[in-house]
Amino acid sequence: MNTKDYISLEDEFGARNYKPLDVVLNRGKGIWVWDVEGNKYLDFLSAYSAVNQGHCHPEIMRAMTEQAKKLTLTSRAFRNDQLGLLYKELCELTHSHKVLPMNSGAEAVETVIKAVRKWGYKIKRVPENKAEIIVCENNFHGRTIAIIGFSTDEQYKHGFGPFAPGFKVVPFGDAEALKKAITPNTVGFMAEPIQGEAGVIIPPQGYLREVRTLCEKQNIIMILDEIQTGLGRTGRLLAEEHEGIEADVTLIGKALSGGFYPISAVLSNTDILGVFMPGDHGSTFGGNPLACAVARAALSVLTKENMIENAAEMGAYFLSRLNDIQSPHIKEIRGKGLMIGVELVPEAGGARRFCEELMKKGLLCKETHENVIRFAPPLIITKQDIDWAVERIEPVLKK
């Protein structure tokens, strides 16, 4: 079978809720992937930051295969020998006190919504069914019904209502707007430290510190969705570290398994996660031994192999190389670590055609919000690799 055959199968039998580039991949190693025709590509998306450690990292693979031979799933009806170890290692690494594992980023977001609402009723004493959570414009926290209900992207919402109440939306990066939106019923504020899906939008310096102070004064839970930004992507373990703060609740996922297995986690403290009693919340696969073993290995190689430090160094280098490109198509280049967006002027004709041209030259990336090219290579990338990429990016952006 060739590329067209595989694409025909997807088009005939699959739902059309994605619009991928027309490349059919079947192998990956490190920063490189190969298609069914044998063509080699540099992966500059990292599965939306799920493959921070690179494709098929041997140590993570070894942990997965060894655990798969022993025990894969018990459900939470019983305990397993990997769960407590993951809890301890995650808490020590992130300075958290409690962990609640789930499977996907969206599940982690749903979990924190439930936890913070219950905290509001039980601890803050907000009147029943009156709890409010404040979120930001252009947010992306997942695609469940509750989550898309507070999205400001009309495509995510159109045709899917009615939606759950209890959410307010304020501009991202505007602490004063947040302050004005707070009421006695506000229990939480949730944001991404950098908005990825919106086009790598970075808030003003000091914004998160202002929010941290405001939440403490108003007795509001500060929730940071670090599912994309966390685990090294921005050159720090968590993006919140750039402003020297700690959120009350941090959500991680994606790179938590290095791309091998779905796992996410809610990181918090006893005060917040302690509101859950047996039966309040759960997941058959959440915290399964296979996922936990994989996550432990993924965290180990992330720190042991200095991937976070490399992301900071290579991100700065890559940004400097991109900023040297003189192109009438470029409106703005934004980024922190290896999370970078190149916004094009509207007259450029959209970012999709640039991504398609880069694919032909052996570099895979993806457009977001029509006019932004998102670059997010694995954190193991080198200067030589970046130079190779820029040699292809520059002529495409100038064309």
Automatic annotation (TrEMBL):
What the record says about family reads:
Belongs to the class-III pyridoxal-phosphate-dependent aminotransferase family. OAT subfamily.
State the UniProt keywords alphabetically: Amino-acid biosynthesis, Aminotransferase, Cytoplasm, Proline biosynthesis, Pyridoxal phosphate, Transferase
Q: What species is this protein from?
A: Desulfonema magnum
Q: Superkingdom of this entry's organism?
A: Bacteria
Subcellular location per the Swiss-Prot or TrEMBL entry? Cytoplasm
Query: Which BP terms does GO give this entry?
Result: L-proline biosynthetic process
Q: Which cofactor does it need?
A: pyridoxal 5'-phosphate
Q: Which Pfam families match?
A: Aminotran_3
- Where is it mainly found? cytoplasm
> What would be one Gene Ontology cellular-component term for the protein?
cytoplasm
Enumerate the catalysed reactions.
a 2-oxocarboxylate + L-ornithine = L-glutamate 5-semialdehyde + an L-alpha-amino acid
Alphabetical list of SUPFAM superfamilies matching this protein: PLP-dependent transferases (SSF53383)
User: What does this protein's UniProt record list under function?
Assistant: Catalyzes the interconversion of ornithine to glutamate semialdehyde.
Among its keywords, does the record have Phosphoprotein?
no
Pathway annotation: Amino-acid biosynthesis; L-proline biosynthesis; L-glutamate 5-semialdehyde from L-ornithine: step 1/1
Q: Does the keyword Amino-acid biosynthesis apply?
A: yes
Taxonomic path: Bacteria, Pseudomonadati, Thermodesulfobacteriota, Desulfobacteria, Desulfobacterales
Sorted alphabetically, which Gene3D superfamilies does this protein's record hold? Aspartate Aminotransferase, domain 1, Type I PLP-dependent aspartate aminotransferase-like (Major domain)
Instruction: Look up the EC number in the record and give it.
Output: 2.6.1.13
Question: N6-(pyridoxal phosphate)lysine occurs at which residues?
Answer: 254
* Protein name (Swiss-Prot/TrEMBL): Ornithine aminotransferase
The record's GO molecular-function terms, alphabetically, read:
identical protein binding; ornithine aminotransferase activity; pyridoxal phosphate binding
CDD domains cross-referenced by the UniProt entry:
OAT_like
Query: Which gene name belongs to this protein?
Result: rocD
